[in-house]
Amino acid sequence: MKKIIQRIIFGAVLLLGLVAVANVTTQTVQASTKVKDGTYVGTSKGEGGKLKVAVTIKDKKITDIKTVESHETKGLGSEASEQLRAAIVAHNSVNVDAVSGASKSSEGYLDAVKSAVKQSGAPLSMFMSKKKIALSKGLKKSHYTYDVVVIGGGGAGLSAAVTAAENGAKVAVLEKQPNVGGNTAVSGGEFNVPGSDIQKRKGIKDSKAQFVSDTLKGGDNIADPALVNTLADNALGAYKWLKSDVGVRFHKNELLQFGGVSVPRAVVPVGGTGNEIVQKLLTKAKKLGVKVYTSTKATALIKPADRVTGVTATNTGKTVTFDAKKGVVDAAGGFAANVNMRMQYNKKYDATYKTTAVAGSQGDGIVIAQNIGAQLVDMKQIQTYPTSNPETGIISYVADSRFSGAILVNQAGKRFVNESGRRDDISNAIMAQPGHYAYLVWGQEVEKLGKTTKTYKKEFKTLKSDKLLFEKNSIKGLAKSFDIDSKTLVNTVDTFNGYVKAKKDPDFAKSAAFTPIKKGQFYIEKVAPSTHHTMGGIKINTQAEAINTNGQVIPGLYAAGEVTGGIHGTNRLGGNAICDIIVFGRIAGKNVSQN
Ligand code: ADP
């Protein structure tokens, strides 16, 4: 579901993840060539007329291709172009075989992608593997039978799959992308755990009740308290399971305190991203015999009568049926990357908002469940991440300096919000500023605590070369970098340093991370909100069973993770998404396996 780190992760996922396309050595991209991240449009002539595609390039990798215009009624339908897309993305190469029986259309598609790539200014040779990529022949059979079929290979889906397999079930995971991971892999991976070993070591008092109270309050008390209590009751167990059963490594002494959370509560996986969780879950799943079908998109749930009995999917253009003897777990994530769906439920989140979400976050899992009668809740609740890259939309991890005390100022050089407040409050405040962006300002005291420029060195470098971040030895210097009135900015920082001393912020009631901004080098980073998490989705009960529009359980259908609604209310607290996906993924996996 984005930031530089996401680019790093995406690269890692590409390397480590499962690839459903035939074996070919992925080419190495020339490290020295500079390519600007962005989405580039290319056109060509297909068999049926004009073909237009939008190619997204991040960190020298083609991460997504969308067809903008196509008239290929005969040769190249959406499924064949999906085959080409998957191969290009998986191998970061446009040197791909044509789809058999659709050579002219394939050439048209590849030409459109090449023309888009050229718009980026990169030499085409960067995206041409030496060897031509052979397209996957796809799945051999058109019908498979498992005990449990899980839709989506993110954190929720993989947790459900591992748990069901641990309980003896024969499990399949269907993942529409060439690689597993979803938004989980590109997230920060922080996990709110009340009562963790780290809290104990640090002498931090916390409780399930405090977790429940923070979560309900953070979501304006519209979340389902039963679900929030389930989250709190199972968070510690889920964390222990990840550590001991799955082998996820967490930093031993690090805890983060996100906005709206009353104490430092979030444990942090090694590497500072969710990819640690995804890769360990994937390894465990494979060990347990879970079959992961990548490039396999669930298109419908099979419900011949009262019960969901399987999934219809597509793989390399062919329809494949997966019977699920015990049931289906829908863990297909949210819809933050789907502008139309966002606007269907909340007009505010139009295309002016970029997104932190991965391309797969299209809401498919919600739609296919709704099609068989599932009840949806809180669909208009869409969260933005306040401090994202204003050009690419991806989360800025360097901007996590905010959690260590960096302040936000506007173009006038003035503070305008409590920087340790809720994501929605900060996002709304930034959107209310001229230009809908803001600047984060910090110095060495903050840097010493958060070390974000060092931990996310690659992102830091890119932000600097993209002129979105400047490092200077004076506050005046920072102001000049973005044409801010330097007297005002100096005055803002001085005033804030006074508040730090008094541990009281009379202007915006900042509640945490009172850190001075006195010692250079200083940093200023331009940030803007991006859509990040969709709180709405399939209604579930505490057993992760999907509920229909009459309020009854839909037998055979479980749902977990961002595809569900009702847990986070109007606003998800930082650190609660990983908690949600692991807790409810495990509940779904356990219950479905016991059918
Ligand atoms: P969560 O955090 O709830 O696990 P993620 O975004 O991490 O959500 O993972 C959801 C996964 O589901 C993504 O990898 C996404 O590509 C996948 N997905 C979405 N729609 C489908 C679909 N129709 N079929 C198969 N996989 C899907």
Average pLDDT reading: 91
Q: What Rg, in angstroms, do the CA atoms define?
A: 24 Å
CATH class of the largest domain: Alpha Beta
**Count of beta strands:** 22
Hetero compounds: adenosine-5'-diphosphate
CATH superfamily of the largest domain, by name, is FAD/NAD(P)-binding domain
The number of distinct structural domains comes to 3
Secondary-structure-derived class: alpha+beta
CATH architecture of the largest domain: 3-Layer(bba) Sandwich
Largest sheet: 8 strands, mixed
Globally, the shape reads: globular
How far apart lie the N and C ends? 32 Å
Helix content: 25-40%
How many H/I helices? 18
CATH topology label of the largest domain = FAD/NAD(P)-binding domain
Estimate what percentage of residues fall within beta strands.
15-25%
Low-confidence stretches: 1-31
Task: Tell me about this structure.
Strands 4, 5, 9, 10, 11, 12, 20 and 21 form an 8-stranded mixed beta sheet that branches. Strands 14, 15, 16, 17 and 18 form a 5-stranded antiparallel beta sheet that branches. Strands 1-2-3 form a 3-stranded antiparallel beta sheet. The chain has 3 domains: 38-127, Sufe protein. Chain: A (Alpha-Beta Complex); 143-188 and 274-381 and 535-593, 3-Layer(bba) Sandwich (FAD/NAD(P)-binding domain), CATH 3.50.50.60; 390-529, Succinate dehydrogenase/fumarate reductase flavoprotein, catalytic domain (Flavocytochrome C3, Chain A, domain 1). Helix 4 packs parallel to helix 18. With 595 residues, the chain is α+β, with helices and mostly antiparallel strands. The chain is built from 18 helices and 22 strands. The model is unreliable at 1-31 (pLDDT under 50). The chain is 33% helix and 22% strand. Adenosine-5'-diphosphate (ADP) binds next to helix 4, helix 5, strand 10 and helix 11. Residues 1, 151-157, 174-177, 181-184, 297-298, 331-333, 360-361, 364-365, 561-563, 581 line the site of adenosine-5'-diphosphate.
